[in-house]
Design goal:
- By secondary structure, the chain is α/β, with parallel strands linked by helices.
- The protein is built from 16 helices and nine strands.
- It has helices at residues 2-12, 16-49, 53-100, 113-155, 157-164, 166-204, 206-211, 215-267, 273-314, 374-381, 404-411, 426-429, 437-446, 465-478, 495-508, 521-525; strands spanning 331-340, 349-359, 362-367, 389-394, 397-398, 412-415, 483-487, 513-517, 529-532.
- A five-stranded parallel sheet has the order 6-7-8-3-9, sandwiched between helices. A four-stranded antiparallel sheet has the order 2-1-4-5, with no helix packed on it.
- Helix 15 links the parallel strand 7 and strand 8.
- Helix 2 (16-49) runs parallel beside helix 4 (113-155).
Length: 533
């Protein structure tokens, strides 16, 4: 638990001023909550005594002032809490995402991006709520409970002893329910996240669903995915209700004892109505505080699920880079390369002792059936998959010794089939260096993108698939990299644009290594060599 608290606090303390005021206001609010019962009790005793009317008005006035201060503090406290929560939420989420970007891409292959987005969003929110509400709440509850017990013993010793007997009851309830509640909460979280992933996937592909008339089938699929959510939700609800009912029984028992005992004490003039009011209020507060402290265990179990899932990313094995930074890539060599995604199965091997060399000044067409590892070859050449056997060399350097992050940023341009962009506007996604303006204009014209570079800065979301494909190609060409990797670059392009792309690649190949995954005859015809996988 200490590691979880420490991890959250490291993010919270970046907003130390806000956090300090948050704590201060919590203490002030708690102090006022303790004063109010005393004022109400004193006021009741003044009323029942029918004396010191002026004193009663003074107490009532003071009570109104305390209430007004409490309302004002509540407003400021809640606004402050929102600021602290939102700022810390961003700090934590940004840190998790930054770490995720350093992991192997294979880590994210098992689940959809929507699933991970949902997990990170909910898990970070759970951790924050746990720290800001539960942990700090427990500390406040302990402080308040200590003060309340002290005051209660001053009012009535016997009732204080009876009330304290409640503590072991709550502890037993917590110990009995702890493990089953953790398991049911974990099952519920996982089933919800899997359903959300399936739901998001269908939303993203509604167009294809309609094209293929798969509405009924996808509805059934969602229903199947949601069935575990219902089952786990009901089981979790039963667990929580069992916990809550046990707590309520203990709470009502102590309340009954307080009322019966206090009635007898008031009848025998050993307790005033005002003292009963204070005692009853404090007993209720104490029960709530004890419940809050012991509920910590219940909430902790749920939160630890979130923390453990985030730890998978936090402690995930990062991709390693070497220190060598090459100024230029002249050739790329594959030596005795063997790789399979499932290392336990030889039949799943994509490559067995593959050897090949890609040299500057040539265009290579990589061909082969689907699923044979053409796109995987790009990931290997980019250094994004590292658990392979054999060697991959840039010039004569093993890429395990090369700073591949620098290489991918400066020396390699890639066109993938994923038509995604980092920014909303076209101008934000295409960087045209002044010295390359002439070439940029030539390529823009050849790819029929001129209308987007004549003063109207269109949003990428408004482009057609073909226009997005052209923009991706333009991005890669304007990078002026030593290596250009293109995965089915003409999908979505018309014949004229494909022919223009061929002309551009022939023009670019003199000082570059160009590797194209393709089944298109026009692109294969411009290749100097074909690599069949």
């Amino acid at each position: 638990m200490s590691s979880m608290i420490k991890y959250i606090f490291n993010s919270v303390k970046k907003n130390l001023v806000l956090f300090s005021f948050y704590i201060l206001l919590s203490l002030l609010s708690g102090g006022l909550a303790l004063i109010i019962p005393q004022l109400i009790g004193g006021f009741v005793d003044l009323l029942t005594g029918l004396t010191a009317r002026e004193n009663a008005y003074q107490v009532l006035t003071l009570l109104f002032i305390v209430w007004a201060i409490q309302i004002a503090l509540s407003y400021v406290y809640n606004i402050l809490a929102v600021k602290l929560h939102t700022k810390t939420f961003f700090n934590m989420t940004a840190k998790i995402i930054a770490q995720a970007k350093r992991l192997s891409i294979q880590y994210f292959d098992k689940d959809s991006s929507a699933y991970f987005a949902q997990r990170i969003n909910l898990d970070v929110a759970n951790l924050l709520n746990f720290f800001l509400n539960t942990v700090l709440g427990v500390i406040m509850n302990v402080l308040l409970a200590t003060f309340i017990i002290y005051v209660m013993f001053g009012i009535n010793f016997f009732m204080s002893i009876v009330t304290l007997i409640l503590i072991p009851v709550y502890i037993v309830i917590h110990l009995v329910m702890k493990r089953p509640l953790y398991k049911s909460t974990l099952a519920l979280k996982e089933s919800r996240d899997e359903f959300f992933s399936a739901l998001n996937n269908q939303i993203m592909h509604i167009k294809n669903i309609k094209i293929n008339s798969m509405i009924e089938e996808t509805d059934k699929f969602l229903s199947v995915k949601y069935s575990p959510v219902i089952t786990t939700a009901v089981k979790n609800a039963k667990m929580k209700q069992g916990y809550s009912i046990s707590e309520l029984l203990a709470k009502y028992f102590i309340s009954i004892v307080v009322f019966i005992y206090s009635l007898n004490e008031i009848i025998n003039n050993r307790m005033t109505v005002g003292e009963f009011t204070v005692l009853n209020t404090y007993v209720g507060m104490l029960v709530a505080n004890i419940s809050g402290v012991l509920t910590f265990g219940k909430i902790y179990e749920a939160t630890s699920v979130s923390y453990n899932r985030l730890k998978e990313i936090i402690d995930g094995e990062e991709m390693t880079d070497g220190n060598i930074a090459l100024l230029k890539i002249n050739h790329m060599t594959i030596e005795n390369l063997s790789f399979c995604y499932d290392e336990s199965s030889d039949s799943a091997a994509l490559y067995n002792n593959l050897n090949y060399t890609f040299s500057t000044g040539k265009i290579y067409a990589v061909t082969g059936d689907n699923g044979k590892g053409k796109s995987t070859m790009f990931l290997l050449l980019l250094g994004l998959i590292q658990n392979y056997k054999g060697r991959i060399l840039y010039n004569d350097c093993d890429i395990r010794d090369v700073n591949m992050d620098v290489m991918r940023k400066e020396n390699i341009a890639v066109v993938t089939q994923d038509l995604s962009f980092f920014y909303e506007k076209i101008s934000e996604n295409v960087n045209i260096v002044a010295s390359e303006q002439k070439k940029a204009n030539e390529y823009i014209k050849a790819l029929h993108l001129s209308k987007f570079f004549n003063g109207i800065d269109e949003e990428v979301a408004n482009l057609s698939l073909g226009e997005k494909q052209k923009l991706i190609i333009l991005q890669a060409l304007l990078k002026d990299a030593d290596v250009i990797l293109l995965d089915e670059p003409n999908s979505g392009l018309d014949m004229q644009s494909t022919n223009n792309l061929c002309d551009i690649l022939l023009q670019e190949k003199m000082n570059k290594i160009i590797i194209i995954i393709t089944h298109d005859k026009a692109l294969m015809n411009i290749a100097d060599e074909r690599v069949c996988i």
